[in-house]
Amino acid sequence: MATGIGPVALAVASNVPKARVFGVDISAAPVRLARENARLLGLSNATFFHGDLFAPLPATLRRGVDVITVHPPYVGKRELRTLPDEIKRFEPEESLTDGSPQGLGLLGRVAVEGPAWLRSGGWLLVEVSPDRSRAVATVLRHAGYTEVRSTKGGVAVSRVVVGRRTAGGRR
After folding, report:
1. Tell me: the pLDDT tens digits for 58-95?
2. Across residues 106-120, what is the average pLDDT?
């Protein structure tokens, strides 16, 4: 979800050749680039869709996905104005903010809709900025995920928050 030009999906496809990898983004231009990147890398196990979150995915994937990754927009609407110009100049606004006050609206949707796609025991992995890890963990817990925790990036700061869908979960 929110695959952009596909770096996470393509890394998974490259490192797990037997995996079927699907990337989705609401913006058409990054999806075109993700498809081109997959072609250039010779990765036939990665497929990219243009659309809103889970909507373009084949229905046959429901309750069968092992892992969902998402790098959602991470900036609240008001905070967007305070970002340095070099960030605003090179990142499309929809990559930075989902328009919600806290910048967690899109993630909330993924967290709520994800269990319909994840198999029992499947994982949701959310790439985050370090200052958002607690808020993201709270969103996942409220959506019924278990084993919610943060992992550290290369500079020992929280970079990924994970949560597991369990059979007995709320969703």
Report:
1. 999 999 999 999 988 777 777 777 888 888 777 777 77
2. 95
Nearby residues of 10 by Cβ (< 8 Å), 6 or more positions away: 21, 34, 37, 38, 41, 43, 46
pLDDT above 60 for 171: no
CB neighbour list of residue 132: distance below 8 Å, 6 or more residues apart = 74, 103, 104
Residue 2 to residue 69: CA distance in whole angstroms? 9
Q: Which of 151, 138, 150, 146 is nearest to 121 (CA)?
A: 146
Q: What is the pLDDT of residues 141-158, one digit of tens each?
A: 999 999 999 987 666 655
Domain layout of the chain by residue ranges: 1-57, 62-171
Both tokens of residue 67? 């892992």
31-49, pLDDT tens digit by residue? 999 999 999 999 999 999 9
Q: What is the DSSP string of 89-156?
A: HHS-HHHH--SSSSS-HHHHHHHHHGGGTEEEEEEEEEE--GGGHHHHHHHHHHTT-EEEEEEE-TTS
What is the CATH code for 62-171?
3.40.50.150
- Give the residue among 68, 67, 35 at the shortest CA–CA distance from 49: 35
CB–CB of 10/42 below 8 Å?
no
- Locate 6 and state its tokens: 């596909």
